[in-house]
Amino acid sequence: MAPQYDVIILGAGVSGLSAAKLLNAQGQNVLVLEARDRVGGRTYTKRDPSFQYADMGGSYIGPSQKRISKLANELGLNLHQVNDNERAVFMDKGKVLAYRDFPRIYNPFALMDFNHFWRTVDNYCRQVPLSAPWDCPRATEWDSITTQEFIDKTCWTRFTKASAEAMIRMTFAIEPRDMSFLFFLWYNRSGGNAYTHMATSDGAQESKIVGGSMQVTERIADILGTDHVLLNKPVSKVTQHEDGSITVATLDGDSYSCAHVISAVPQALIGRITFSPPLPSLRNQFIQRIPMGSCIKVLLYYKMPFWRELDFCGDLCGTELLAEAHDDTKPDGSYPALVGFLNADNARKYCMETPEKRASMVAEVYSKVFKSNEALNPVATVEQNWMAEQYSGGCYMGATAPGVLTTMGRVIRTPVGKVYFAGTETATRWSGYMDGAVQAGERAAREVLCAKGMLNENEIWEPEPDPENDGVTNNPYVNSLFLRTVPSVSTFLKLVGGSVTIGTLAALLYIHKDRVPQLFSK
Question: Which fold has domain 4-42+62-79+209-291+404-455?
Answer without folding.
Answer: FAD/NAD(P)-binding domain (3.50.50)
